[in-house]
Structure formats: structure tokens, C-alpha cells
């Protein structure tokens, strides 16, 4: 069933888009990530113009995150105060990101930057998570895990604040910076930034794992929502029809994924997610290194 | 239906064609892009006036072109820098058609001279305007070739040699496939009548390609009220997320 997308100006198979949304939904339900890092490259692959793919992914992630946060709110695993601090940084970051995206596009380097970002961040996060979760699996086999709390330089900064749900008393600076960085990435890469936010919250801020996903999703709603509006207002590249197809597939997939995820051990899930992240990273890295078939590329000039 | 139209046309021919060498029409002069739009077909047909001052045995040829809306485009060339492929050189093309198709009655090189091509801008290389600096001419050629090559690969540009059928040296017809990734605008159809490599006469018709219904509404909203559109997109996403959670939450 072909459907013509009004903004992307291309006719694509609706079932294919539902499938992409569904596949990414399953993964996001299993691993608690938005799935933007998968959806954007998949949309490139289907032939959606990159600018439309990035902007529309952000819109789709809003829906996935709302669905996820509501589930977490019922379980009281969202730290609203921490989320708000992250969000303040995130909104500033998103504005910087959209501005940066336009500069890079005019310089013809947006594809390169988006890919480099993906390779660097996916590579780093994937490798860290892979090593950490393998260690956890080995540790679990020997002894029950001990709760650990980091007490590094992060805790020596001023402007301390108490985050009751997370059980933390730390400076607001690190979460604000984490939020800002993720905001920039979310606008440039068309991702929610969960795959960076989640490890940053666990390893950098020392938040307990059970509140991390809900809190991350909470702030992602606002950052991606803001990014969507900015992209729509400045670039006019948000395709509602495309977003709708992706999110119908996505929300159904997410529920399936949550059920699969509930049956697996946390370390196993993390190893699988790490492998997935690393394989996307390797694929993108190869694209940068191997000589492309067509050395030339076209870019429409926007007025 | 097109056969019937051809027949009617040929009957009317003597009176219609009295003042010109060629008459032509299109199967449709508007194409509507609906949600289920998946490409379309455009039939171009017409008749050539024979006799008069020309000798009967003289061969005539017909070239038909279809041209989409023109846009500026930047062509970029990638080079290897520090091991990775980076866009380095770029070239701005002032206007290139989004879609271009040429249908001919015989191989193009046999029926059109370079001079006529230059004057009448028949081939896509002549239609693309560099708006440019003559100093960069050689380099421009490389970038224009790349543009044509990329758009041919994605089905936007096409050369259909020998697809104009001429019956009894007087009736001609050809069809164009409009790709599914077509954009809005006025598409120009030009019909050239050629003798011995030169363009004898030329005719132009327009096809209006328009988004209709919901496609029209969504597109207009995104262009005219971008802020409202963006907020609407977010609201739809929030409602969809909430609905999914509510629907599955109760069951699970």
C-alpha cells in the first residue's frame, strides 16, 4: 500500500513504515531507549530526505516517550525534579542544536557531522555498556551485586540540590550539562538521546537504575517536542503523515518489547543493546571509510 | 480513449492545422496528488501537417520533452580527507528541473544537431542553467554531469529514445511515466518537429500537478503556519502516546 507523504514529497510503502516503527518500538520497549538512533538511519535508507527524517524522528520520539513515561509514572519511577533540571539544560541545547544543524547544512557537512556523531557516540556508549554488562554478568555468577555509589569530582561542585526520588544530594551543574549536551545531539541527530542520557545518569550522576529510564524519557518528551516545533518553524521539515505511521507501529511494538524485556535479565538486555548499538556504529563507520559509489551529492537550496 | 481522440483529431486536422505544422494535446492537463498517489502516466499525442511546401518523401522527426519545476541545487563532491570521505568542492546550479524526460522518434544524435539543441534547449544539459561564471565552465560540466547521472539513477531524468511513434508520417504519440516522488508545480511539455536535424516548429503545453485533499491541507499548513503545524505535530504525538499507554495499560 503506497502512501504519498505531503512534506517528504515521496511515495512510500505504508506497511514498510509501520514495520520500521514496530521494529524500533520493540527494541525501545525492551531496552528503554527512544530508538531514534535506529529510526533516522532507517528512514535515510527508505529514501526520506535527511532533513525530513531528522525532524520527523524527533516528532515520533515524543509519542514513544509519552507512552513510556505514563507507564513509569504509574510505577513511581520518575524523578520529576531531576528531570526538570535536565530539561532546562536540554531546551537550551536543543535551540543550539537546531541553529548548528542549519549552519552545518549550509556548509554541506550535515551528513558528515550526523554520521560522525553517530559513530563516536554509539561506539563509545556501546563499548562501555558492553564491557560493563559483561562484568556484571560475571560478577552476578560469583556474588550478589553490591549497591555502589560514586563519590567523585561530580559531588564536589557547588549549587547542591536534594533529589529525593533518586536519593541524591548533588550539584545541579552536572545534570544541566548532561541535559544541554543531549539537547544539542537530539536536534542535530534526530534522536531523543536516551542512549547517551541513560549511561550518563547511571555512571556520571550515580542515579539508581530503576528511576533512570523514566526520568530520561520524561525530559526527552520536552526536548524532542521543542526540537519538533523548532524544525517545523525554521525548516518546515516535519512530516505529520510519516510521524503518524511510525508512531502507530512504534507504540504497538513498544508494548510487545516491554513484555519480552520483562522476561530477560537486566545484564542480558544490556549486552544485547550494546551489541545492537555497536553494529549500527560499525555500519556507519564503514560508510565513512569505504569509497562511495557516487562521489557527488545533491542538496536543494532552501530560500 | 486516446485512440478515439487521435481519430477525431485526424478528422479535424485539415481545418485545425491550416496555420501550423503541428497540433498536439495531452491525455490530461492536471495531475492530482492524493494520499494514494503512486506515479501517473501522461500521454502526448498529435498530428503533423504534411504536404504544402515540403516534399512528401522528406522524413520528419518528433521530440517531446517533459520538464518539472526548476529549482536551484548545490552539487557537492566528496574527497578523502584524513581517511574519511568528506564533502569538499561544491558547485551551485541556478536552476535545474526536478523532473526531465525526453522522448524521441529516432536516436537523438541522428535527428538533432548541436546547434539546434543550443538554440532550443532540448537536452537536459542545455535546460540546466548554471547562472554561472564562464571561468568555471570545464568544472561546471563535471558537476552538471553528476547532477544528471544522480537524477537518472533515481528515475527523475530519463532519455526515451525511439518512444515517439509516428504513424504514416502524420500522427504521433508518446507516453511519459510521472515518478511517484513527484513534486507540485506546472510541468511543461514541449513538442518539437524536426527536419534534417533542425527544429521546424515547436509547441508548448502545461500540466498542473497539484496536491489535493488532505495532502493539500497538511502541506499548506506546514508552509503558511509553521509554528501552529509544529505544535499540532507535538499534540498529535502526545495524544497518540497517551492513547497507546491507556489502551495497553488497562489490558496489561
Describe, in plain words, how this protein is organized in 3D.
The complex is a heterodimer of chains A (303) and B (252). Chain A is mainly α. Chain A contains ten helices and five strands. Chain A is globular, with a radius of gyration of 19 Å. The model of chain A has no long low-confidence stretch (mean pLDDT 80). Chain B is of the alpha+beta class and 252 residues long. Chain B has two domains: 2-211, Immunoglobulin-like; 212-252. Helix content of chain B is 34%, strand content 38%. Chain B has helices at residues 2-16, 108-111, 114-120, 124-127, 137-153, 213-224, 226-251, and strands spanning 22-26, 30-33, 40-48, 61-67, 70-81, 84-97, 100-104, 157-160, 165-167, 171-178, 185-195, 198-211. The interface between A and B is large, with 61 and 64 residues.
Briefly summarize what is shown.
By secondary structure, chain A is mainly alpha-helical. Chain A is 71% helix and 7% strand. In chain A, α5 (110-142) runs antiparallel to α10 (266-289), α6 packs antiparallel against α7 (194-204) and α7 runs antiparallel to α8.
Amino acid at each position: 500500500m503506497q502512501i504519498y507523504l505531503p512534506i517528504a514529497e515521496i511515495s512510500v510503502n505504508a506497511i514498510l513504515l509501520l514495520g520500521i516503527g514496530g521494529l524500533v518500538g520493540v527494541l525501545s520497549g525492551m531496552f528503554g531507549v527512544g530508538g531514534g538512533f535506529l529510526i533516522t538511519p532507517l528512514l535515510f535508507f527508505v529514501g526520506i530526505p535527511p532533513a525530513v527524517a531528522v525532524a520527523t524522528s524527533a516528532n515520533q520520539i515524543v509519542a514513544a516517550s509519552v507512552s513510556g513515561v505514563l507507564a513509569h509514572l504509574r510505577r513511581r519511577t520518575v524523578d520529576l525534579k531531576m528531570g526538570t533540571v535536565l530539561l532546562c539544560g536540554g531546551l537550551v541545547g536543543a535551540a543550539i542544536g537546531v541553529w548548528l544543524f542549519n549552519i552545518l547544512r549550509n556548509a554541506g557537512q550535515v551528513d558528515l557531522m550526523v554520521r560522525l556523531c553517530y559513530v563516536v557516540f554509539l561506539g563509545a556508549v556501546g563499548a562501555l555498556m558492553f564491557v560493563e554488562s559483561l562484568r556484571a554478568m560475571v560478577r552476578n555468577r560469583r556474588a550478589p551485586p553490591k549497591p555502589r555509589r560514586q563519590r567523585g569530582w561530580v559531588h564536589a561542585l557547588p549549587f547542591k540540590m536534594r533529589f529525593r526520588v533518586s536519593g541524591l544530594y548533588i550539584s545541579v551543574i552536572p545534570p544541566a550539562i548532561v541535559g544541554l549536551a543531549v539537547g544539542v545531539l537530539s536536534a542535530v541527530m534526530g534522536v531523543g538521546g536516551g542512549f547517551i542520557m541513560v549511561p550518563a545518569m547511571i555512571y556520571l550522576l550515580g542515579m539508581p537504575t530503576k528511576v533512570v529510564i523514566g526520568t530520561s524519557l520524561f525530559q526527552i518528551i520536552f526536548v524532542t517536542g521543542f526540537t519538533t516545533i523548532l524544525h517545523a518553524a525554521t525548516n518546515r521539515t516535519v512530516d505529520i503523515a510519516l510521524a503518524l505511521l511510525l508512531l502507530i507501529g512504534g507504540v504497538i511494538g513498544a508494548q510487545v518489547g516491554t513484555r519480552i524485556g520483562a522476561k530477560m535479565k537486566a545484564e542480558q538486555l544490556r549486552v544485547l543493546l550494546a551489541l545492537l548499538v555497536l553494529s549500527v556504529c560499525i555500519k556507519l563507520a564503514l560508510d565513512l571509510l569505504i569509497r562511495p559509489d557516487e562521489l557527488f551529492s545533491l542538496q536543494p537550496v532552501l530560500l | 480513449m486516446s485512440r478515439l481522440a487521435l481519430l477525431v483529431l485526424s478528422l479535424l486536422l485539415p481545418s485545425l492545422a491550416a496555420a501550423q505544422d503541428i497540433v498536439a494535446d495531452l491525455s490530461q492537463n492536471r495531475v492530482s496528488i492524493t494520499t494514494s498517489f503512486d506515479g501517473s502516466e501522461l500521454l502526448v499525442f498529435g498530428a503533423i501537417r504534411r504536404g504544402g511546401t515540403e516534399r512528401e518523401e522528406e522524413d520528419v522527426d518528433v521530440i517531446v520533452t517533459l520538464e518539472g519545476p526548476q529549482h536551484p541545487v548545490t552539487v557537492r563532491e566528496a574527497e578523502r580527507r584524513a581517511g574519511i570521505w568528506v564533502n569538499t568542492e561544491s558547485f551551485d546550479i541556478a536552476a535545474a528541473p526536478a523532473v526531465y524526460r525526453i522522448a524521441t522518434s529516432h536516436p537523438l544524435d541522428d535527428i538533432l544537431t548541436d546547434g539546434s539543441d543550443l538554440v532550443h534547449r532540448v537536452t537536459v544539459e542545455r535546460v540546466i542553467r548554471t547562472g554561472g561564471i564562464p571561468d568555471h565552465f570545464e568544472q561546471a560540466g563535471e558537476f552538471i554531469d553528476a547532477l544528471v547521472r544522480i537524477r537518472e539513477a533515481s528515475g527523475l531524468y530519463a532519455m526515451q529514445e525511439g518512444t515517439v511513434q509516428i504513424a504514416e508520417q502524420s500522427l504521433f504519440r508518446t507516453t511519459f511515466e510521472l515518478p511517484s516522488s513527484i513534486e507540485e508545480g506546472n510541468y511543461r511539455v514541449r513538442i518539437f518537429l524536426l527536419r534534417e536535424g533542425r527544429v521546424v516548429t515547436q509547441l508548448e503545453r502545461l500540466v498542473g500537478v497539484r496536491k489535493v485533499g488532505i495532502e493539500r491541507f497538511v502541506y499548506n499548513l506546514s508552509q503558511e503556519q509553521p509554528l501552529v503545524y509544529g505544535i499540532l505535530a507535538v499534540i498529535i504525538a502526545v495524544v497518540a502516546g497517551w492513547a497507546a499507554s491507556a489502551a495497553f495499560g488497562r489490558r496489561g
